[in-house]
Amino acid sequence: MIDQFLWVIFPYLCVAVFIVGHIWRYRIDQFGWTAKSSEFIEKKQLMIGSILFHFSVIPVFFGHIVGLLIPARWLEAIGVTEHLYHIGAVYIGGFFGIVMLAGMIMLTFRRITKQAVRRLSSASDIIVNFLLLFITFMGVYATLVTNAVVTDFDYRTSISVWLRSLFVFSPDANLMTDVPLSFKIHVLAGFLIFALWPATRLVHAWSLPFNYVGRSYIVYRKHK
């Protein structure tokens, strides 16, 4: 029963909250659709932490896409062998994971130790910071430690297959039974952040300035 909830009901529930929550947030709180930058309070740690985080989050994201959504046989068909994939996942993925973890540690440390930043932070800001830090830590731990200890585990034959089964509405909770605990925690925390996303400042991730492309030039006139 608990497995059905964790690996079938909970993921769909989180995705539903993610979608409906964004629609609701956009309809009632467009002016709150912002990152609420605290750069004017403290800039140095924010700049370093943000660079580390944003530099690494994109390759980490695409690494998850390749590892979880693309079947292993498809990669093998284009010449990406198991050994080559393992090198990329562990060493390259591990490197970017550590960089992302360093960025999250710095950003979280800044938020809780800088009094002015902490006063400006809402409860959701604190929760998101610590949850992202936890997710990143568990991802790095699973990649570098669990993979080294549980050498016969291959998430591409378990987690990846399970995740893809969600997309075709045919989830199989049994695929997650023998998955190491660190990977399970990482997956569940990842879905949880999706559920919390619409209620936090993470919505600023979708605020791309597409309107700037077709916007008219702003003319400034100098008064004499």
Automatic annotation (TrEMBL):
The chain crosses the membrane at residues 6-25, 46-72, 84-109, 130-150, 181-199. Heme b binds at H54, H64, H186, H204. GO terms for cellular component: nitrate reductase complex; plasma membrane. Its EC number is 1.7.99.4. GO terms for biological process: anaerobic electron transport chain; nitrate assimilation. It holds the Pfam family Nitrate_red_gam. GO terms for molecular function: electron transfer activity; heme binding; metal ion binding; nitrate reductase activity. It is found in: Cell membrane. It is an enzyme of class 1 (oxidoreductase). Residues 3-222 form the NarG-like domain. Keywords: Cell membrane, Electron transport, Heme, Iron, Membrane, Metal-binding, Nitrate assimilation, Oxidoreductase, Transmembrane, Transmembrane helix, Transport. It is a multi-pass membrane protein. PANTHER family: NITRATE REDUCTASE PRIVATE CHAPERONE, REDOX ENZYME MATURATION PROTEIN REMP FAMILY (PTHR30598), RESPIRATORY NITRATE REDUCTASE 1 GAMMA CHAIN (PTHR30598:SF3). This is Respiratory nitrate reductase subunit gamma.
